C-alpha cells in the first residue's frame, strides 16, 4: 500500500507492532512510491512520490518525539509522479530518479540541482533502473519492450535489446558484478522466465567469485536463491524459502548490515499488509561467506564523476563484523551565481511566481533550521524525562 509517510520505528527497530503514536517521516502530499537508503551515509534516505517530488531526509540516531516534516532538500524537476530512485554506487551525493514523464534525472543532492536530464531515450514508462558496479553505466527496462544500457554522461544508449522476454508483462534487469545483465520476465504464455545476457559492447572483467541472486515476486510466498557462474548452465538453482503469507514488497539489507557472528549471509524485510517481517539466511560456517563489500566511503565526488572519471567502490572487510561510522550530517549548499561557474544559458528575468517560489524555499530552510534546533533540545531532554514528565 502506498503511503505518504514512513513510521520512524521501522528505521530503527525493534521488530513488532508499531505504536499508533510513533513519529513519522512525513512531507509528501501524495503517496510515496519508492525509497532508497544512501550507500554512503546510513542516516540519509531519499523518497519519491506521486506529488512529482523527490525528498532527501536526515534520520537522527535517536527516535524523535515529533514527526520529521522538513527534508534536507526537495528535488523538483519531474512533471509526473516519480516511481524510481537509486543512489550512485561510488560517487558522493548523486541520486537518480525516473518518473512517469519517461524522464531520468541525475541530481547532485549536495547542491540540490539537476546535473543531467535524459528526456529523449525512453518512449514509454520506465520499469526499473540499475547501476553497474562502478556507476559508469546503468541498465533500464521500459514499457516499449526495450532493454537499454545507457552512458548518462554521454547521453547515449550503448547497447539495446528488444524483447528480452516475449511476454507483455514488465521486465526487470540488474547489472551483475562482472558486467553481464540478469533479467526476469514472462513468456508469451505468461510463464516466468529468467535470463543472463552478455550485451556488447560492455567491457567485461574476470571475477574470481560467483554471483548470488534472490528472486521474489509481489504476491508470492517464496524466495528462490540462484548462483551464477561461468560454467554452463550458468544460472544454478540452489534453494527456496517458503512461507504461508504472500509478500506485498521486499527490502534487502546491505552486506555490512548483516550479523557476521551468526554467519548471516542475507537478510530481507518482507512487507505484509500490516507488518514488516525480517527474514535471515544463515550458514553454519564462515568459510568464504564474507568477501570484502562496498563500504560507506564514496570513491568519487559528484563533480569528478560528472567530468568523466570512474572508480571502483571502496571495499571494507567483514571478517570481524562491520562497525558503523559516526553519524554524518548531510549538508546542502545551494549554488549561487558566483559559485556555479559560467551560466549555461542567458538568464531570464525572474517572474513574480519564481520570486514567490524562492521566498517559499527560504522559509522552508528557516523552518528546517528551527525544527533541527527543537529536535536537538528534545534529544538532550530525553534521557532526563523519557515520558515527557518531570
UniProtKB/TrEMBL annotation:
One of its GO terms (molecular function) is actin filament binding. GO terms for biological process: actin filament organization; cell migration. The lineage of its organism: Eukaryota, Metazoa, Chordata, Craniata, Vertebrata. The keyword Lipid metabolism does not apply. InterPro entries: Coronin (IPR015505), WD40/YVTN_repeat-like_dom_sf (IPR015943), WD40_repeat_CS (IPR019775), WD40_repeat_dom_sf (IPR036322), WD40_rpt (IPR001680). This is Coronin. Keywords: Coiled coil, Repeat, WD repeat. Belongs to the WD repeat coronin family. Gene3D superfamilies: YVTN repeat-like/Quinoprotein amine dehydrogenase (2.130.10.10). Residues 353-380 form a coiled coil. It comes from Podarcis muralis (Wall lizard). WD repeats lie at residues 25-59, 75-117. PANTHER family: CORONIN (PTHR10856), CORONIN-6 (PTHR10856:SF23).
